[in-house]
Amino acid sequence: MIQAKGITKKYDGFTAIENLDLNVANGSIYGLIGINGSGKTTLIKQLTGILRPDAGEITIGGEPVYDNVSVKMKTAYVPDELYFPSNYTLDSMASFYRGVYHGRWDQQRFDAMCDDFGLSRTNRISRFSKGMQKQAAFILAMSITPDYLILDEPVDGLDPIMRKKLWSYILGDVADRQLTVLISSHNLRELEGICDCIGILKNKRIQFEGRLDQLQSELEGMTLEEIFLHEMEVR
Amino acid sequence: MNKALFKEDIKRFWPLSAAAFLLYFLFGPFDLLSGNGSTSYQILSMLSNNNAGFLVLECMFPVVICTAVFQYQFKGNSNGVIHAMPFTKKELFLTGTASACALSAAPQVLTALTFALMRVLDLAVLRSGSEAAADFYSRIWSLSGIGLWLLTAAVISFYCLCICIFAAMISGTAVMSLLNGMMLNGLATVLFTVRTYFYGVYMTGWCSDDAGYRFTHPAVYYRQEARSLLSGEGNRLLAFAGSVLAFTAVALLILAAAWLLCRKRAGERIGSSYLFDAAAFIIGLLGVLIGSIFFAALFGEATVSAYYIGALITLLIVQMVIRKTPRIFTKELLLPLVCSVLLLSLVLGYFVLDPLGIEKKVPKASEVASVQLTENHTGFKELTDPDLVEKALHLHQRIVSEPAALDGSWESGYDSASTIEYIEYKENFYTVWTSVRFDYTLTNGRTMIRSYTLPVAWLLQDDDLKVILESDRAREEQMIDRLKSYDLKNMTIYISSAEYATRVVSEQDMDPKILQESVFEFTEEEKQRIIETVSTCWLKRSYEQRLLSYYGNAFTVQITVFHPSDYDFEQYADEFTSSHYIYKDTFKADSNVVENFSFGVFESDEAAIDLLAELLRR
Fold it and tell me: Are A69 and B273 an interchain contact pair (Cβ–Cβ within 8 Å)?
């Protein structure tokens, strides 16, 4: 379970997140939505242990995240802004990940996914298109067989075929291994098709959190996009 | 430390180390192998860190490697990825430090191995063999000598590396990290050696090159120790070990401070927090200060306005780097501008007004055991006679108390026939200046050094220097007297034509072609005549002629005295090197020359002109 309790984050006097609570159940897919600048990336960076909250507590599987190697070992993160060392190929990245995620790295899966996505393993990743780089990051993240997967705008720049592949891998792992997924995206239609739960971030905190099907039945079959617009106006 | 990350760092950045090794190789082994053989000076220079290329690499390569290894800190996206991976902050810091150390040490180790290989295979053959070559091989060009170089180079690099890691922790971009690394390197060294530095300045004054030399880098201190050690002075071993330990301890302290900053450092938005803004501001000010000094130095005559212009130019560049935009002409520029002007005014004011009296310090007669007075054109005189010491102190006092008079003395001129003759002949302003240096040995055992650049015309008016130069003690040290102690067989005399030569040659009815030659074979009788004649001419010289002896001479008589074949070289080397800044082994290995004398023959030295004309005409 991914859990945040009363977290607050400030940057040089500006409060990005205040007293925020969040709960992602094991084996679920959680959609984090919010308008631009609402603090989604800041929240995700705290959930992945990149940033330390000024107040509150974040745990994954019951353990605190920040500076915790054992938790990070089980968590994969695909950021919105990708980074690969210059001159690195997919193979060299795999070699690096194999060393770092020792014991969790699944080489067969990596090989299979590379073939499936049709990415060159010997060309420099820096020469890939933005969409291809997203695919590369996703392949690497899935190849460490994480228990928790956190994705920030994962399908941004991907064509429909690749998006479909990506979702199918995620759904497969959720079904097979009880993978817990948190996705931040503006593509609400796709989130609607894949998420179990959603959390709407507004005014520096999660204003609404709950099961999507439950919400839709409460709001008389509204789409996620309609729900989001409704929540933004109402709350 | 994380092994996988360490391995990855090495894999990524080994080309930088390879490039550094290539440079080490070019400055070191290749240099030794490429000539017609090596000189012991070359080898000693390399192994005692006196090689400029080595020094730059030892100090600057850590800046580069550190910026490379810690570059993930400077990019928001890479920082995010790295910190999301299963590393603790401590692991990242320690692994980065270990990688930087390894990458920085690798080229030095490879260079040391190359040296060792060359030594074992005897590839660096000394060009000039001597009796001392075996000694040189066993003491300097030995495996232990090479190991000592490696240790020294590694400690210097580690010290610089720790400073650069600190710089990386306060930097928001790779460029700032490079700049901060270089600037903090200088600053930390000054702070660390502040006592030594102040002592150095106090004893040498700002005018001495030595002060600036000490200011530059810790390498200087290592070098001195390493040199002593290489020269075989075993009692220096303890001092060297102390120096290594002290620098390592300070380096570790700086590293600890860097780690504390690293813990405080936010995972992202680097360069936006107050801490980093403040660091960038302070480093920016230091950059302005260094830039202004550099700019002023470019113009040689470092006027105050040159410092301010340099500061302004650097300020604009630094602000563009810090703010990452050329659009810096906003109200935010005002604060750094005001602070830069204030800081520069403070520093310049300190130097100009000399509130601590460092530059104006003249020791009391009771404090001085002896003084070595060196005037550029007349050589040095070791004075112990109280009267002469008093004269030297009086001259020194006049120099420091009459700066205005010194500045104006050239314009006011000096009504002397030779000066006028000289001025008529030479219009080049600079050559009428000379340097005067006072090397005091104080009664408390310390030394105090001051040197000044003065107009010759001003010195010509000075009675103190006149008394000193005409004293018995000074005469004793004149070259002519010393020449008498050497055997003519061991002398070679060169005659080289100088400024007036063409005129003199035509007046003396000589063949102008002789001016193209410079070496003449003289018989012992001719040598004797030359020496006697120039001796006579020298003794007849007036004070002003001696001071002006460099200017307007027609010929230069260069007399070189070599060691006799049965000379006790060891004893001589001991004696010579103990009073000169030359290393005995180098001296013994390379030098067969006892002394060089140079005597300018003027048109007015009729006897010498006649003799040379006669000898050269034959």
Answer: no
Determine the Cα–Cα distance for residues A23 and A21; give it in Å rounded to an integer. Answer: 7
**B266 Cβ under 8 Å from any chain A Cβ:** yes
pLDDT number for residue B428: 41
Number of CB atoms found within 10 A of residue B539's CB: 11
Per cent of chain A over pLDDT 90 is 6
Element (H, E) at B604: none
Q: Which two tokens stand for residue A233?
A: 């106006």
- SS3 (DSSP) at B382: strand
Contact assessment for residue B104 and residue B161, using Cβ atoms and an 8 Å cutoff = yes
Q: What are phi and psi of A135, to 5 degrees?
A: -60, -45
B1 exposure class (CB count in 10 Å sphere: 0-12, 13-18, 19+): middle
DSSP assignment of A70-116 equals HHHHTEEEE-SS----TT-BHHHHHHHHHHHTTTT--HHHHHHHHHH
The rounded distance, in Å, linking the Cα atoms of B607 and B294 is 51
At B5-60, the pLDDT tens digits run: 898 889 889 999 999 999 998 888 887 777 655 566 677 667 766 677 787 788 78
For chain A, where are the E strands, in sequence order? 2-11, 14-24, 29-34, 55-60, 63-64, 75-78, 148-152, 180-184, 197-202, 205-211
pTM (global) more than 0.80: no
Closest listed residue to residue A225, CA positions, set A203, A192, A182, A179: A192
Which SS3 state, helix, strand or coil, does residue A233 take?
helix
Q: How far is A234 from chain B (nearest CA, A)?
A: 33
What are the CA-CA distances from residue A156 to residues A83, A167, B140 (Å)? 15, 13, 65
pLDDT at B207: 43
Could you tell me if B267 lies within 8 Å of chain A, comparing CB atoms?
Answer: yes
Going by C-alpha positions, the residue among B317, B358, B462, B349 that lies closest to residue B402 is B462
Q: What angle do CA B337, B331, B314 make, to 5 degrees?
A: 30
- What pLDDT is stored for residue B122 in this prediction? 74
Tell me how close the Cα of A76 comes to any Cα of chain B, in angstroms.
8
Confidence at residue B306, expressed as pLDDT on a 0 to 100 scale? 79
Contacts of A96 in chain B (CB under 8 A): 4, 8
The average pLDDT across A150-177 equals 85
Say what percent of chain A tops pLDDT 70: 97
Residue from A2, A67, A152, A153 to probe the interface with B (highest B Cβ count within 10 Å): A67
pLDDT for B19: 93
Instruction: Measure the CA angle with vertex A126, ends A125 and A127; round to 5°.
Output: 85
Order of strands, sheet of B447-455, starting from the edge strand that comes earlier in the sequence: B379-383, B368-375, B433-442, B447-455
- On whether the CB atoms of residues B16 and B65 are closer than 8 A, the answer is yes
The helix/strand/coil state of B212 is helix
Residues of chain B with pLDDT under 50: 129-131, 194-201, 204, 206-219, 232-234, 268-271, 408-431, 499-500, 576-583, 588-590
The side-by-side arrangement of strands in the sheet containing B593-601 is B491-497, B555-562, B593-601
Q: Which residue has the tokens 């040189």?
A: B136
Average pLDDT value for residue range A132-153 = 90
* pLDDT value, residue B410: 40
Asked if A99 has any chain B CB less than 8 Å from its own CB, the reply is: yes
Instruction: Classify residue B313 by burial, with Cβ atoms within 10 Å: 0-12, 13-18, 19+.
Output: middle
SS in 3 state form for B523-561?
A: CHHHHHHHHHHHHHHHHHCCHHHHHCCCCCCCEEEEEEE
The gap between the terminal CA atoms of chain A, to the nearest Å, is 27
Burial of B322 (0-12, 13-18, 19+ CB in 10 A): buried
Amino acid identity of residue B476, one-letter, is E
Cα B560 to Cα B494: distance, rounded to the nearest angstrom = 8
- Residue B85 is given by DSSP the state S
Which of A2, A17, A100, A148 to mutate to probe the B interface, most B CBs <10 Å?
A100
